[in-house]
Amino acid sequence: MAQQRIGIIMNGVTGRMGMNQHLIRSIVAIRAQGGVTLSSGERVMPDPILIGRNEAKLAELAKKYGIERWSTNLDQALANQDDTIFFDAATTQMRPTLLAKAIAAGKHIYCEKPVATKLAEALDIYALAKKAGIKHGVVQDKLFLPGLQKLKLLNDSGFFGRILSVRGEFGYWVFEGDLQPAQRPSWNYRSEDGGGIILDMLCHWRYVLDNLFGEVKSLSCLGATHIPERIDESGKPYRATADDAAYATFELEGGIVAQINSSWTTRVRRDDLVTFHVDGTHGSAVAGLTDCLTQSRVNTPKPVWSPDTRNPIDFFDGWAAVPDTWSFDNGFKTQWEMYLRHVLEDAPFKWNLLEGAKGVQLVECALESWEERRWVDVPKLQA
């Protein structure tokens, strides 16, 4: 029996995220393992067509990874009825227009976040998809990080008791471009090009907080542009018009308080590039990208404040690692497989365009809070 295929139009895969995580570590990896296995046992092979503006890059990628099809003509690709999914990882500013065009062509939708730069646009795209009756999903990759999967396991087991607070630290030093080349593209630091750490990261924090701890009810956010001038890819200085750090406090359902600092202007002295410290009545945990350490109520030390003597307690002792009792695949690949099963056999998939719109909503509320220097309520979005 011939193996079933599913055609995927992949737009924006010459960029860093689209190429590394979605093309190479997801679709190419799924093809290498022989496709996606359905509940029936049948295997379905993704058949991508790579779409972009740079013919040379597309041809090189296709050749290197054994992909037969590529094109610079998106309209022609959308007209092909044999390709049923449209995926977008290109610029956020163009995403609503591209998604609307793909929905009009009858394609199922899967895309990177943010789904738009404005909440109204995000909700319009969700309404279009809902009316068209197509399947739609948004990348929410950090839910599938091993460290956060372990946090979820702890929470589901009741380890924390009643959760009191969550403290997140994300970021690292992104070089200005003079002493060393920057690790991130220059557009990240220009608001007119869709840059800014609030737009980039608060979409992530929305789904992390909502799914692991409790829905966000309100927030207070202070943004900053700590480094006002950087050097671009051609060696020319430019003015940074977007925020490079954000300091946010969130009120969650159940009375949980979350604080998350996001910064491209901090030097790392913590367990990982992102850490989440969760305190509960019965225990605490600190999770990074892959590892998670716990300290239970009965193992909690009893320090005494004394500024005159060196503290005798090593506070890094007394924490136990959550073991790797199951294997973890690449988070982007895991969600791709779930989405493909959703399209192919209607398997559950909750991370749709409405969930993506919630991330954009949090961005707008954060920017409003920063501008007006006040707490902002986050209304519930209705399906």
What's the helix and strand layout?
Blueprint: E1 4-11, H1 16-32, E2 36-37, E3 43-51, H2 55-64, E4 69-71, H3 74-78, E5 83-88, H4 95-104, E6 108-111, H5 119-132, E7 136-138, H6 146-157, E8 163-171, H7 197-212, E9 216-224, E10 229-231, E11 237-239, E12 245-252, E13 257-263, E14 274-280, E15 283-287, E16 292-296, E17 320-321, H8 331-345, H9 353-372, E18 376-377
Parallel strand pairs: 1-3, 1-5, 3-4, 5-6, 6-7, 8-13
Antiparallel strand pairs: 2-3, 8-14, 9-12, 9-18, 10-11, 12-13, 14-15, 15-16, 16-17
Helix pairs in contact: 1-8, 4-5, 5-9, 7-9
Describe the structure.
- It is a single chain.
- By secondary structure, the chain is α/β, with parallel strands linked by helices.
- The protein has a domain at 142-330 and 360-377: Dihydrodipicolinate Reductase, domain 2, CATH 3.30.360.10.
- It has nine helices and 18 strands.
- It has helices at residues 16-32, 55-64, 74-78, 95-104, 119-132, 146-157, 197-212, 331-345, 353-372; strands spanning 4-11, 36-37, 43-51, 69-71, 83-88, 108-111, 136-138, 163-171, 216-224, 229-231, 237-239, 245-252, 257-263, 274-280, 283-287, 292-296, 320-321, 376-377.
- α7 packs across α9.
- The longest helix is centred in the C-terminal third of the chain and has 20 residues, at 353-372.
- It is globular and about 75 Å long.
- 42% of the residues are buried.
